[in-house]
Amino acid sequence: ESMGATDLNPNRLTVAKSTAKNFINTIPYSKIGIISFAGNSYIEKRLTDNKAELITTIDSIKLTKYGGTDLYEAVSASLNLLDQEEEKALILLSDGQININSVEEIIENARESGTMVHTIGIGTSEGGETSYGISKLDEDTLKSLAHNTNGEYFNVGNEEQMNQAFNKIAPLTRKIGAESLAFIMIILTII
User: Fold this and answer.
1) Alpha-carbon distance 180 to 167, whole Å?
2) Does the pLDDT value for residue 181 go beyond 60?
3) How many C-beta atoms surround the C-beta of residue 174 within 10 A?
4) Please, what is the Cα angle at 103 between 46 and 32, to 5 degrees?
5) What ranges make up the beta strands (E) of the chain?
6) Once rounded to an integer, what is the mean pLDDT over residues 143-165?
7) Contact 169, 91 (CB under 8 A)
8) I want to staple 135 with a disulfide (CB 3.0 to 4.6 A). Which of 5, 19, 33, 182 is the partner?
9) Mean local confidence (pLDDT), 12-35
10) Do the beta carbons of residue 38 and residue 18 sit within 8 Å?
């Protein structure tokens, strides 16, 4: 529900979906999976290089009334999808308000699997209106997760900044495979 906050116009989820679709349309060959999460994680799309299917999947993601931000389960599901892949990267879009499990466990699992985690903190420090009150961005968790997995953290407060973050992530992720431009990414969108 926090992704319905209005500190990004018209709301966080709409901006996240729009920029994720732009990113998918502009990257070279890549296998991408999509997982949405709140209190639970849902594999919306397993790894594929079919951009049309990925766009349709992103369009179908809706806000839910389920509470919580279970980053642990979302990252665990992503790591399972990437288990057999050699080049692994994860892009985590979240307001970062982790309230289930600890960031230390998430970092340990990502590091053990050799997965670089880039995090995008969506929202403003002032927060935005939701159906339950104000939702503020919790950057500390997202910064820690990215830093401790050799990823990068990006704070975005509008659609332009979100597009810039995705554009900066693509070349960073390609560094995983020295010889190949192909890279593996999971886009997590919180609902």
Assistant:
1) 18
2) no
3) 18
4) 20
5) 30-37, 41-48, 89-94, 116-122, 128-130, 133-135, 153-156, 183-190
6) 93
7) yes
8) 5
9) 90
10) no
How high is the pLDDT of residue 173?
Answer: 60
Q: Report angle CA 70, 9, 61 to the nearest 5 degrees.
A: 45
The model's pLDDT over 67-108, given as tens digits with 9 standing for 90+, comes to 677 888 889 999 999 998 888 899 999 886 666 677 888 899
Would strands 30-37 and 41-48 be described as parallel, antiparallel, or unpaired?
A: antiparallel
The whole-angstrom separation of Cα 169 and Cα 3 is 22
Q: Which two tokens stand for residue 70?
A: 């279970």
The chain-wide mean pLDDT, for the chain, equals 84
Q: Is the pLDDT assigned to residue 133 strictly greater than 70?
A: yes
First to last CA, the chain: 6
How far apart CA 26 and CA 169 sit, in angstroms, is 12
DSSP per residue over 6-59, as a string?
TTSSS-HHHHHHHHHHHHHHHS-SEEEEEEEESSSEEEEEEEE--HHHHHHHHH
Would the pLDDT of 145 be above 60?
yes
* 81 close to 186: Cβ distance less than 8 angstroms: yes
With contact defined as beta carbons under 8 Å apart, do 37 and 74 qualify?
A: yes
